[in-house]
Every structure is written in C-alpha cells, then in structure tokens.
Amino acid sequence: MILQLISAVFLGLLFHGIHRKVIARIQGRPGPPVWQEILHTLKFSFKQTWIPKTASMPLYVFIVAVSIAIWAGGFFVVFSGGSLLLLFAVFMLHKITEHGLGLSSGSPYGKFGAIRSVMSAASEIPLFATIAGMYVVTGSLMISDITRYQAIHGPLLISAFPMAAALYLVILSKMHYGPFSIIEAKEIVSGNLTEHFGVWRAGLQVAYALKTFVLLWVFVLLFIGALPWWLMLIAMLLLLVSLSFICAFTPMLSPFDAVAFETVVTGILVGYILVLGVSG
Amino acid sequence: MKKNTFLAVVFISAAVLCIAAYAASTGACPGWLPVVAVMLAFPTSVLSLFLWWNASNTKGDIPFTGY
Amino acid sequence: MFDLPVEGEQLFVLEFGDIVNYLSLYTGALFFFAVTFILIAIIARPEHQTDIIFGTDAVYTKDIKPESLRFQRFMAIACGLATLGAVSSGDLFNFTLFTTLIGITNIGIVAGGDNRYVLNAAYNYGIVAMVATVFLFGGAAMALGTCGTLAIWELAGKGLVPLGAKMFLVLGVMGEGMAPFYIAKAEITRAPGAPYVLMIHVSSLLIFLRVIEIVLTV
Predict the structure, then answer these.
(1) ipTM value
(2) Looking at CB atoms within 10 Å, which of A76, A112, C34, C116 has the fewest?
(3) What φ, ψ does residue C85 adopt, rounded to 5°?
(4) Testing the interface with A: which of B16, B19, B36, B46 to mutate, by most A Cβ within 10 A?
(5) How many Å lie between the alpha carbon of A89 and the closest alpha carbon of chain B?
C-alpha cells in the first residue's frame, strides 16, 4: 500500500521528466535528462526554507499538505476501484488547493494565478462532470464495475469516444507547459506557485507527480480497461507522449481563449450526454 | 522547530503509515480507515522528512531580504 | 440503507423520523474536508498583501489586522457550518435551505471588504443568489409534488424525481455556487483575507459535488 504510493510518486516525477524531454526533442532542443524532475524535487527539498512574513499562517503550509493528501486519497480511490464521483471530488478539491496556494502568500502574482485557477475551473469542472455520462453508459460509477463492463463489452474508448475526449482534455489542461496551463504562465512569474519555494515546492512536486500518475492511470482504466501492470505503464506512457506532442506544438492560449475553447467542448458534450440519456 | 522534533515527527508518521498498511493487508478494519490514516500521515511524513534534512542548513539567522 | 453504485459504502446514519441524515464514503469525505477548512478559518491569520508600485521596483506591504476582518471570519465559519449541513442532510428541502444559507453567508464574506468595487461584486452576486433560490425551492417543490416525499433515503434509486426538478436543483446550485467568480472579481481589486475568501470556494465546490450525488441518486 505504502510501497505503491511511493513508487507512484517516483513514476509520476519520471513521467514529468519524460514529458519535458519529449517536448524538448520535438522543438529541436537536447532537453533535460528524464530523471530531472526527481532531481528537482530533491534539490528543492534541500534548499533553504522559511515562511514569508506576509503569508497567511498556517494556511500557507497547510495547503501544501492538503495537496499531497488529496492526491494520495485519489490514488487509493483508483487503486481500490472506488467511486469515480470521489475522484471527481478530488479533482474539485485540487482546484481549491490551487486557489489557496495563490491566495495564502499575499503576493500579487500568486493572487493572479489563483484568479485564473477560479476562471478555468468554470470550464474544466463541467468537462470532468461529463464522466457522469459513464453512469448512463455502464450503469455504475464504481471504477471496478466499469473495468468489468469493458471486459465484457470492449473498451469504452470506442463506444464512448466523446467522454474519452473530455477526460483527455481535462488531463491536457493539467499538464505543465500545455496550451491550458494559464495558471502558471510566465507573465505572472510562476502563477500560484510563485511564493512556495524550498521544501514547500518539493512537497508540491510530490503532489503533482501523484496527480499526473492518477489522471493517466484512471484514463487507461476507464477507457481501455484493466491491464497487467507493465502493459498499464506502457499505455500510460503512450498517453503521456501523445499529450506531450500537443503541448509541444501548441502555444499557451490566452486565459479567455482557454476558457472559451473548453466551454464550447463542454456544451457539445452535454448535448451528447442528453441525447444518450434520452435515447439509450 | 528543532531538527530532532522533525525527526520525531518523521518516525511517528512513518509508524502510522506502517500500521495502516499492515491493517489494510490483514483486513482488520474497514477499508477506508487505513486510507484516511495514510492521507493524514503521508503529507506529514514527506514534509517533515524534507524539513528534517533541510534543518541543518538553516541554523543561525537568515537575513530577511524579501519585499 | 440504500446501496447504489454511485458513492461508495454508507458509514453513518442519523434518523429523524422519515428524514434520514447519512454520511457515505463520498459525503463523509466532503464533510471531513469542510471541517478542516473551518478549523483553518478559525485559526489562520489573514495574509499581508504586497503591491508593486507600477513601473518601479518598489513594493509595499499592506498592514491588515485580524480584528478588521472579524466579520468576514464570522461569516466564513457560518458558511462552513452551512456547508456541513448541505453535505450531510438526507432531505431535499434541508439541502436547499442549507444551500441558500451558503449563498447568504457568501454574500456576507464578500461584503466584508470596505472597497467600492468589492461591494459592487457582492451586490451583483446577491442578485444572482436571490434568483437562484427560486430554482432551488422550485426543484424541491416539484420533487415533493410528484413523489410525496423529500427524503433522499426514500427516493434513492427509484428514478421518480422528474428531470425538470433535477435540472432546477442543478440550476439553483449553479446560481448559489457562482460566488467564486464574483470573489475573483473582488480579488482583482485586492480584497484581503485569504482563509475566509477560500471558504467561499470550498463551500461552492462542495455544494456542486453534493448536488451531482443527489441528482444521480434520486
């Protein structure tokens, strides 16, 4: 149980490193070694750390712990084949921690990152809610039931393609250097992460590694089905490389365009689910 | 906090993690209870571990250079 | 005890006649999260915001005393308690009542700032929240009219509540849960009090999560 959690952290960090490497290779740069993000986390954890005088204590420290805790919870939800609704809740709580990270320091950059996080929540969250359409298709929201359904009826990637596209877009919006990662855009320094340095940043690296691992894992489980662990890792890697390609080729959208694009996709999906619910 | 305090927190939370993992493997309690314990103890252990090996670097005064 | 493959196992049940308040794995997680953020709102000190003097390297820090935000803190704690009620109630009418209470306390948190733009945002949000109560209570009334009961325990898994009532409930919660966008507008004008402002976000997202559970259950 603990071993899986810790390996998920390291694999998630490795995935982040591979993500950076793929982007770099596509853009014709040598790029960092794939284990760079693991080194980054260790480096941050050794850096001098204190709490800014302007920060809201204990919110400033607490919010880092909450980030790690919710994704550890998300990991076990997927691990035990629990309710998809609970994973949706984890995703929502992640938006709260993003907002809290930016607010707690008193820095204007952090605050703007937090505001962008609230605005993008308007489009990302309905997108994730279309997963409720899984209930219409499979009659259950338990991940274990959904994988069992796929063992009988074949992968949902084909029969419920629009929902797979929605979750794909959700994962894309959470990737670093992606077209939708407006909350950590460089024009606002590092957005909501600006004031969390040293140990706090290392803690956030751990949380985000878990997040990447959980989101990739749940996509493969929901739309391809249960696989042996090595095949699962290969499927997750392929999914990650496809995301890295998109991140490498698209510039970061402006906040307005990012929200508008996701809202249009959500509108189409809601129509699809209503049709599915009424007809099927 | 002192370096030894962080180390003590690391040990306590690691013990909680081990007990939770053991309880989950034997099925001694309902499945959600070890998960709650891990959710509380895992961030504590990670952050206090980082703060523990960091603590020796930060002895003495840190000049406040920000803002 | 109803057993739907939606939200995990049931953990706790408190019966008041035909109204059964319950915590499942899902609502229990939401409850736990709300409790932690209430504790944070109680103990946390507000942040001191730094501002840059535009076009220069100079920064200055605002001095914000916790006493000046006492009303916001009270409202944040009240909002947290209303959230606890909304995630744990097993009755559609109680849920709508608590959701409305969340709307009212959110107006209070936003209106705690003494900035003209912040008050304007609170006023706009207030109108949206008032309109949303019509849909909320309308949804509950339609459910009562068609099913004769409002207890989620009774309605679970039967699919009796009409689609219109469910859509009214979701619309109402969307109106009440619109608060983060108005507070974001207020935050651009640098409204202080991070732990209290965060409570707006927590309560709004938690009622969204709860209404999805209700819509899928009843």
Answers:
(1) 0.87
(2) C116
(3) -65, -45
(4) B46
(5) 15
